[in-house]
Design a protein that fits this description.
By secondary structure, the chain is α/β, with parallel strands linked by helices. Helix content is 38%, strand content 21%. The chain contains nine helices and nine strands. It has a nine-stranded mixed beta sheet. Helix 3 links the parallel strand 4 and strand 5. Helix 3 packs parallel to helix 4. The radius of gyration is 17 Å and the shape is globular. 51% of the residues are buried. Belongs to the ThiD family. Keywords: ATP-binding, Kinase, Magnesium, Metal-binding, Nucleotide-binding, Transferase. It catalyses: pyridoxal + ATP = pyridoxal 5'-phosphate + ADP + H(+). It comes from Paenibacillus silagei.
Length: 270
Amino acid sequence: MSKIIKTLTIAGSDSSGGAGIQADLKTFEEYGTYGLSALTTIVTMDPDRGWHHNVYPVDAAIVAEQLKTIFAGGPVDAMKTGMLGSVDIVKVTEQALKSNKQTNVVIDPVMVCKGEDEVLNPESADAIRDLLLPLATVATPNLFEAGVLSGLGKLTTLDQMKEAARLIHQLGTQNVVVKGGKALGGDKAIDIFFDGSEYLVLETAKIEPAHNHGAGCTFAAAITGGLANGLSVKDAVVKAKDFVSAAIRNGYAFNEYVGPVFHGGYRLEQ
């Protein structure tokens, strides 16, 4: 067997399996990599309360111990963050990345759970912006997160997405993907990639029914897998768009509240 390619996710747990650390590890496996994980938060969804989300951060000291364990094997080939849960966890993550000289860093600045529209912890969002974006090879905010990070507020047009990507790039990340997905009007699911000089519009036909729970996490994890396998940032993003589109096409209705993507969709379609 050739060299083992290692990938890392620092993220929260989604018990339903569609998003979070579960989505990341499944995606890493589909990319042929050895996935490692540091758990930051536990998220539960209550079917008796309309699928209301409860978020329980892990103690930052325990996150630090997990990262110490992981990096005892040296830097990984690529890594990503997801829901971090507290300012202290963001600081622990920053320290681990710096002290281990980690490269190929994908920062998915998770601020809300799907179906929610309030920043879970505004101080954490600020810490991600100030401490982690300058370390990022790629940042992958969705429309809501891009609006917060850029200061533009609600984004509703392609031009606004481009401007948000430009402003987020100025915060220090090398590349930006603004994940518009199905949120814009029209019949296309649109994302924007910006490398500091050029924009690339990524679009596919919208998929109905849209079983897209976990699509954002999966997109970022797929970029991570591509980088770990030696793809350029642009090529990793383009492949990740195809990967997540296939995952949505092969998604299913978990229950009356949520329909997750299926992470093996891309492989099944090949």
